[in-house]
Amino acid sequence: MSMSDMRFSPGQFLAPGVDWLNANLHGLFVAISQVVEAVLGFVEHALLAPHPYVLIGIVVAAAFFFANRRVALFAALMLAFCLFSGLWVASMQTIALVSVAVLISVSVAFPLGVLAARVKKVEDAFLPILNIMQTVPPWVYLIPAVMLFSLGRVPAIIATIVYGIPPMLRLTTLAFKQLPKDLLELGQASGASPRDILFKIELPTAAPTLLVGLNQCILMSLAMVVLAGLVGAGGLGAEVTRGLSRMEMGLGLRAGLAIVAVALLMDRLSRGALQRHAPAKLV
């Protein structure tokens, strides 16, 4: 028996399962694709419908109201760079994709993280799964997503969601496990309901760690932007891919800097808003 005959190929074991899923759950995958496309299309339309100057003004005003003057000025500079670099549409597509992915990732990771913090068995069950998810290279997530949803924005956003869940889940669990016991006991002794304890004691106290988790989720999602361009997701990732494939250094550099601008914009907006509304906890 030659060495080539002894090779292990996981594809021969996974292919029948993928074929079964495509044959029996095709309607479910189509429905998921339609929902994701609809939500993503709505967000993109909301970002691209106004004139760029109008949208910049709206974002700057919102940043000034929810954060502070410095964040508003920074947002104006980052959006101006995206506009005058000629990558406004691609930048808005990327912001839409990342925003939807982060929203879904946080919606999934936050309740699971709270549950893991309160139930030890759940945390023990999640731990090896999270270790594997954070060890696997990001582009590997695109393979099953493309197999089930074909090429386009849907597999890109699903892979981005999966890639963004682990850091938010881990840090949510850590945030709630580190809550001071005396504060919780004080809330219970004062007759506060579980809802009041959650929103008035636990969330404000856990806010700094939750903020770190949100920032990590945003950065992880943006790390998938370039890879998402390989499967037809569009946005700045497609521009980076086009610049590399055509050896256009100028286009690739502009797109790369635009990704940095988008990352800084989303990071400063989220951090500034949370610091404004929880100044005592987010020093």
UniProtKB/TrEMBL annotation:
It is found in: Cell membrane. GO terms for cellular component: ATP-binding cassette (ABC) transporter complex. Residues 91-270 form the ABC transmembrane type-1 domain. The chain crosses the membrane at residues 20-40, 47-66, 72-90, 97-119, 139-165, 217-237. GO terms for molecular function: amine transmembrane transporter activity; carnitine transmembrane transporter activity. InterPro entries: MetI-like, MetI-like_sf. Belongs to the binding-protein-dependent transport system permease family. This is ABC transporter permease.
